[in-house]
């Protein structure tokens, strides 16, 4: 499968499927049965995320570009860029408290973004081991992570209220693995969902600092109109700021689909000054995170009905950012 962002493309490769040739590889994220540190291998920046239970579940996400790529390491970050797009991956080792190392990792990433001049951050992914457990101070690890991220963003000029679509999901090991995409030019618009309270405005009950992300991000390269490519953040069964249908995975799927459809639908895009429209059938690259393995067949059946038969869908059994959430879904709706 290839999702093209006008020069930037994505492929999802299953175990045993050879990597395609003919384009330059900007970054590689391997979803493995173990974790591996960010590194440069044969000139390609990548990271290994512990999301697979065994070898049958291995998936590799490959980001490609039309232009030659320069790669390197910066403060333990693996990165690559081609003059238009930047891929950057990092990892924070498991620790009793993530606040300080997450703040440091975020600051390093945005230092690199400024240094290389890729100011438009399009999308960020985070995979957090033991996401619902308590840290050494008794704070839930996800809330610990959000605290460090918020403090890092506070010190970034122009970023505090303008972060892109993101995913914060569990992993099976390896501390916190994460990666991002950024562009040098083009128009980026971060979108909220009228059915939900913006994550940065969540009340204090969800932690000392709220999550910092948008519900979706629209990226339109220079010279083009409309929404361009829509990156839909990790989305779950939340209305307002509350989880709904706790304990019912089918109903949680339905609310999740409704939230995704709303944020990329015509009414919401027009409200954000974008004359465009997308539906769930336009999503081409979908990752589905399911808390309980026994729920995967039910979730898969509902996803196959909701999404196009041309969509590439990967399923992972991991914890979700709230203990009462059973499923989370993300995707990309590319420009036609």
Automatic annotation (TrEMBL):
<dbReference type="InterPro" id="IPR031038">
    <property type="entry name" value="Chori_FkbO_Hyg5"/>
</dbReference>
<dbReference type="InterPro" id="IPR049368">
    <property type="entry name" value="FkbO_Hyg5-like_N"/>
</dbReference>
<protein>
    <submittedName>
        <fullName>FkbO/Hyg5 family chorismatase</fullName>
    </submittedName>
</protein>
<dbReference type="Pfam" id="PF21168">
    <property type="entry name" value="FkbO_Hyg5-like_N"/>
</dbReference>
<feature type="domain" description="Chorismatase FkbO/Hyg5-like N-terminal">
    <location>
        <begin position="61"/>
        <end position="182"/>
    </location>
</feature>
<dbReference type="InterPro" id="IPR035959">
    <property type="entry name" value="RutC-like_sf"/>
</dbReference>
């Amino acid at each position: 499968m290839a999702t093209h962002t006008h020069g930037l493309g994505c492929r999802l490769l299953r175990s045993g499927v050879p990597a395609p040739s003919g384009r330059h590889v900007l970054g590689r994220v391997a979803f493995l049965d173990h974790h591996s540190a960010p590194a440069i291998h044969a000139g390609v920046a990548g990271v290994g995320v512990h999301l697979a239970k065994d070898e049958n579940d291995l998936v590799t996400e490959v980001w490609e570009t039309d232009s030659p790529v320069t790669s390197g390491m910066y403060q333990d970050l693996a990165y690559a860029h081609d003059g238009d797009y930047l891929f950057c991956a990092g990892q924070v080792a498991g620790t009793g408290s993530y606040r300080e190392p997450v703040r440091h990792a975020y600051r390093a990433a945005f230092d690199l973004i400024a240094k290389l001049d890729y100011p438009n951050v399009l999308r960020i992914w985070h995979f957090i081991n033991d996401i619902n457990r308590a840290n050494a101070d008794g704070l839930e690890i996800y809330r610990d992570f959000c605290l460090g991220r918020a403090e890092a963003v506070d010190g970034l000029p122009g970023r505090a209220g303008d972060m892109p679509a993101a995913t914060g999901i569990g992993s099976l090991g390896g501390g916190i693995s994460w990666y991002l995409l950024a562009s040098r030019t083009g128009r980026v618009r971060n979108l909220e969902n009228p059915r939900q309270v913006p994550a940065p405005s969540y009340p204090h009950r969800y932690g000392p600092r709220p999550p910092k992300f948008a519900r979706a991000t629209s990226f339109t390269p220079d010279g083009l109109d409309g929404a361009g490519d829509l990156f839909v953040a990790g989305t779950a069964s939340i209305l307002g700021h509350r989880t709904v249908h706790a304990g019912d995975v089918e109903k949680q799927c339905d609310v999740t689909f409704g939230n995704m459809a709303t944020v990329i639908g015509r009414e919401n895009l027009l409200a954000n000054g974008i004359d465009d429209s997308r539906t769930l059938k336009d999503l081409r690259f979908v990752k589905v995170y399911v808390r309980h393995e026994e729920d995967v067949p039910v979730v898969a059946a509902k996803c196959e009905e909701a999404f196009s038969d041309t969509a590439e869908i990967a399923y992972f059994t991991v914890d979700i950012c709230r203990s009462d959430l059973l499923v989370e879904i993300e995707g990309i709706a590319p420009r036609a």
